[in-house]
Amino acid sequence: MDRFPITDPDAATRLDERLRAWARTAIDDGHAVTIDHHDGADPAGHYHWLVRLRGEEKDVITAWVSLRQRSVHVETEVVPAPETGEEALYRYALVRNADLRSVHLAIGPESALYLVTVLPLAELTLERLDELMAAIVVYVDELYPTMMTLGFSWYRRRRR
């Protein structure tokens, strides 16, 4: 694996501080469940955090935040690889992609559907981080029931 270390040696510390500052407010407000940081870089030189958010349709939504060489990548799985109706599910995702802001839908290597975004670290202010995490929760809650219905014949939406 090629190693592309972070060009700014303090970037991981700054991102960790920013995520934790945001999480304190989000946890107090009941929006975030936990935030975990994996100490040290992975073999590619990237740093990772797991942010667990509270959802309505999915009880817990996990966002994977990765600091790479010059950017922050955020992704969350909306639904796993479909068991049935792949064509209808992927078509629905492609059509919905046009309406999404801040994030986009992508098919992962294992065929699951993810919400993904990439942005420069300097743009990830507390306000932008709050907007991004809110978008993730809103879009997962909007997309999850329909995507599960299209991709899993056994799925029945629970009513709250």
Q: How many strands?
A: 6
Q: CATH class, anyone? A: Alpha Beta
| Whole-number mean pLDDT | 90
Shape: globular
**DSSP helical segment count:** 3
Can you name the CATH architecture?
2-Layer Sandwich
The neighbouring-strand order within the major sheet is: 1-2-3-4-6-5
Major sheet size, sense and barrel closure = 6 strands, antiparallel
In terms of DSSP E residues, the strand content is 25-35%
In N-to-C order, the SSE pattern is HEEEEHEEH
Structural class, from helix and strand content?
alpha+beta
CATH topology (level 3) name: Yope Regulator, Chain: A
Low-confidence stretches: none
- Give the number of domains: 1
Rg calculated over all Cα atoms: 16 Å
Amount of helix: 25-40%
End-to-end separation in angstroms reads 46 Å
In short:
The protein contains 3 helices and 6 strands. With 160 residues, it is an alpha+beta fold. β2 and β3 (60-67) form a beta hairpin.
What features would you describe in this structure?
There is one protein chain. The chain has 160 residues and is α+β, with helices and mostly antiparallel strands. The chain has one domain: 2-Layer Sandwich (Yope Regulator, Chain: A). It is 36% helix and 26% strand. The protein has 3 helices and 6 strands, in the order αββββαββα. The protein has helices at residues 11-29, 86-97, 126-151; strands spanning 32-38, 47-54, 60-67, 72-79, 104-107, 113-119. It has a 6-stranded antiparallel sheet. β3 (60-67) and β4 form a beta hairpin. The longest helix is centred in the last third of the chain and has 26 residues, at 126-151. It is globular and about 50 Å long.
